[in-house]
Amino acid sequence: MTDGHAAAPYGPPGREDDPDRGPDGPGDPPEWVKSERQLRREAELRARGRRSVSIATASTIVVVVALVVGITKSPGWPRVQETFLSPEAFVAALPDVLRGFLLNIKIFLIAEVFILVVGLLVALVRGLRSPVFFPLRALAVLYTDIFRGVPTILLIYLVGFGVPALQLQGAPSDPVTLGIIALVLSYGAYVAEVFRSGIESVHPSQRAAARSLALTHGQTMRYVVLPQAVRRVVPPLLNDFVSLQKDTALVAVLGPLEALRQASIHASSDFNYTPYLAAALLFIALTVPMARLTDHLAARAARRRTGGGDA
Amino acid sequence: MSLLKVEGVWKHYHRQSVLRGVDLEVAPHEVVCLIGASGSGKSTLLRCVNLLETIDDGAIHLDGTEITDPRADPDDVRRRIGMVFQAYNLFPHMTVLDNITLAPRRVHGVRAEEAEARARELLDRFGLAGKADEYPDRLSGGQQQRVAVIRAVATTPRLLLLDEVTSALDPTLVTEVLGIIRELKDTGMTMILATHEMGFARDIADQVCFLEGGVLLESGPPGQIFSEPRHPRTRAFLQRVLEARRM
């Protein structure tokens, strides 16, 4: 760690080999030899780096020990250990919970595609200016206002029990499909706002340049604004998808055998809550890599923004 | 017949008048330079001609038809007018070649190969032969602005508007952009430039217009405007420019 710090930025500058220029040519820049002062400075920085690492290690150990001691010495610990951390119950429930989790992934993947389509369409409709589209635009505003305001779980109840109750010809009655529809309605509204903020973040001068080339509103969107907007909203979109991944568990209230439902079946038959822990671990196993990817993309976008001069 | 005719154009922003009854006529192949302090209305006038701003009164005619008629199709007007901006406004997600061929292909229906061949020819002519596949942020300011000029002329417009195209550039890069404009004049391109480069305006313009506070105070051939300005405000402005240069 301290090594990398010292090595990368301070190496001798890579001199451009220019065969036409003699070593003592008039325009030859002076060669850099590290001065005593710089060497002392680097030694001091390295020592400081080592000191920070030891302090961080020590404080981490103190905190972890305090947590472990505090929890295991608590009066209810033996009981918690038995009901939440039973290896036997874990092993017994895992296959079913895992099978249920595959359904969560399926719900997630299908919903994600529709959410992107709905979100993008709603965002684009809100950007239309022609008076012909006024009703559509009003509808889009109404949609985002309502569906961002209703708690997702309530929406799942409403769609999951309300739509079948209508007894419409051809309306879906399968709980998974209904759950997906509810998730799409809820997340579509959020994603529409993300897309809209991305579209609005593209500088007006880009639009002016496109219009000055006689591109129509639609062409300006398609070739100039959207490609830039979508690139900017990838990190917030991924963030919404991390959230969607775990909200697939809400579909459990409609009855399909996904991870949470499987876990609760096991939990209620054995009076042991360890299956919930199994389900939680599976969700974490999926969301953590996605969250790291989001961070990585956001950091890269930030580097690009400061690196490339965006006049 | 004049190519562009601006008649009594008014424009307000937030109840403040930016253009106050501006009249201007531009003949085919003529180069007109708009001079004046920042905020005098030069840029606004150009944006009004390109219909990027709607005027509040008056009329603008291009090739004898009124383009400020609400029934006129703005896209049809812009197909005949090119514009170059102070901050280049290249599309950062497209290569130089795509920036240049976008409008010919999507707006003018030119086939891709044809549009590319023409773009490469223009890049060649203006000293940017190796830059076709670069992204704009890999180019210097002068190179970016030259690409922006090429993008604007790739559709062979009737009229080219240049809005302070050298103001964002390092002094050493100004000449390369001015060079390309001079070449365009030689090809007979009709141009209106808003500019702070007085020496260049004197050299290239057929007509120089001085604006102040949204009023076109004086216009005439560069020799007259720069050597014997009639209006005292023009004289005062040129005096200030001269003093600034001596500093």
From TrEMBL, chain A:
This protein's UniProt keywords: Amino-acid transport, Cell membrane, Membrane, Transmembrane, Transmembrane helix, Transport
Membrane topology: Multi-pass membrane protein
Family: Belongs to the binding-protein-dependent transport system permease family. HisMQ subfamily.
Residue ranges crossing the lipid bilayer per the database entry: 53-72, 105-125, 146-166, 276-294
A Pfam family annotated for this UniProt entry: BPD_transp_1
Region (Disordered): 1-36
Protein name: Amino acid ABC transporter permease
Predominant subcellular localization, coarse grouping: membrane
Keyword Transmembrane among record annotations: yes
Domain ABC transmembrane type-1: 101-294
Source domain of life: Bacteria
CDD domains noted in UniProt: TM_PBP2 (cd06261)
Listed Basic and acidic residues bias regions: 14-23
UniProt-annotated location(s): Cell membrane
TrEMBL record, chain B:
GO cellular component: plasma membrane
PROSITE patterns to which the protein is assigned, alphabetical: ABC_TRANSPORTER_1 (PS00211), ABC_TRANSPORTER_2 (PS50893)
Keywords: Amino-acid transport, ATP-binding, Cell membrane, Membrane, Nucleotide-binding, Transport
TM segment ranges: none
UniProt topology in membrane: Peripheral membrane protein
Listed SMART domains: AAA (SM00382)
Family: Belongs to the ABC transporter superfamily.
Name recorded for this polypeptide: Amino acid ABC transporter ATP-binding protein
Organism classification: Bacteria, Bacillati, Actinomycetota, Actinomycetes, Streptosporangiales
